[in-house]
Design a protein that fits this description.
The protein is built from eleven helices and five strands. It has 328 residues and is of the alpha/beta class. The chain has a five-stranded mixed β-sheet, sandwiched between helices. Helix 5 packs antiparallel against helix 8, helix 6 runs antiparallel to helix 11 and helix 7 crosses helix 8.
């Protein structure tokens, strides 16, 4: 027993050190490699083709540029979440349209780009208009970005507490659903009331948050019910170490290293961020995929809880005793 203790200490220390490196990499790597990668923007006006060619020449791979027929169509692309910004060329000079509600970071980068555009007689700089602005109390999106991590961590914590406190899996599933509903209404009240981070319909936001919480807590609780303690670890790694850094809550999926930015949109944290933005600022535009992703994760979590309940029922079923053999 004594001889195995040093090896156990060594194993735990090495494992903890590796976990530390993984966590630092997971959280720091996307931030350190943030930059525009095929960010969709639109151009319009008489110089649209020239502007598109210039952007491709000066910033290759940074923007995915599409030409629209006029300024009204360019604005529609922003409100429909088809583009993050637009460059409108006119005889008086270019103008830049942004949608900081979609991503304050992208809006800032487009604002910096506007300063480099040239107008008549070589005049530098273009006027910038924020078509779909972020909340006035959170113009840089820092508060919204800070909302995501505790939302995930609280979902994980609730799943763990319910797993260890409630033995009956059916009641555990009921607890997950109740927690999601209460959390949705509570967080929505906090976000729209005291913090004033998100506009829009309170009931819609509460529903979106409840679904997001259910997708996180339900998946982790379901994995725990189906796989035991290993499921809790797998759920934590999936939601916290992978889903949170790839959620693009403080940036945009197109600013993260690819394909990780796109992968993040198929995990609950990233889908939740997109759905909250779409419903709060864009009247639901661009919400279909995120809504489908969250609903699929929530359904999968509840399905795993059902599997766990069946497994426990099978394990606890008494084994019938064999009748004693008759003596010859």
């Amino acid at each position: 027993m004594r001889s195995s203790l040093p090896s156990r200490v060594l194993g735990v220390a090495v494992g903890a050190a590796l976990l530390q490196l993984i966590m630092i990499t997971a959280f720091a790597w996307p931030v350190a490699r943030t930059g525009p990668r095929d960010v969709p923007i639109v151009v319009t006006g008489p110089q649209a083709s020239a502007v598109a060619d210039r952007l491709e020449h000066e910033r290759p791979g940074a923007f995915a540029v599409e030409t629209r027929r006029d300024e009204a169509a360019a604005r529609e692309a922003l409100t429909d979440r088809e583009a993050y910004g637009a460059i409108v060329t006119t005889p008086a000079g270019p103008r830049v349209l942004t949608a900081s509600a979609a991503s304050p970071m992208v809006a800032q980068q487009l604002g910096a780009l506007a300063e480099k555009l040239t107008g008549p007689q070589g005049a530098r700089g273009a006027a910038v208009q924020d078509v779909v602005a972020a909340d006035s109390d959170d113009p840089r999106g820092t508060g919204f970005g800070a909302l995501v991590l505790p939302l995930i961590m609280s979902g994980l914590a609730a799943a763990v507490l319910l797993t260890f406190a409630i033995r009956a899996v059916a009641w555990r599933a009921a607890g997950v659903v109740l927690f999601a509903v209460l959390g949705g209404f509570g967080v929505a009240a906090l976000a729209q009331g005291w913090l004033s981070l998100l506009p829009g319909s309170y009931l819609t936001l509460a529903g979106v948050l409840a679904l997001s919480i259910l997708a996180v807590a339900g998946t982790v609780a379901g994995l725990a019910a189906a796989l035991g303690r290993a499921g809790i670890g797998a759920g934590g790694l999936l939601m916290l170490l992978l889903g949170n850094p790839l959620s693009a809550a403080s940036s945009a999926p197109e600013l993260l290293p690819q394909p990780w930015g796109e992968i993040g949109q198929f995990l609950p944290p990233g889908a939740a961020v997109t759905l909250i933005r779409s419903t709060s600022f864009f009247d639901g535009a661009g919400a279909a995929r995120a809504l489908t992703v969250l609903a699929a994760w929530a359904a999968a979590g509840l399905a795993l809880l059902a599997v766990g309940a069946l497994r426990r029922r099978t394990e606890e079923r008494p084994v019938p005793e064999r009748a004693p053999a008759m003596a010859g």
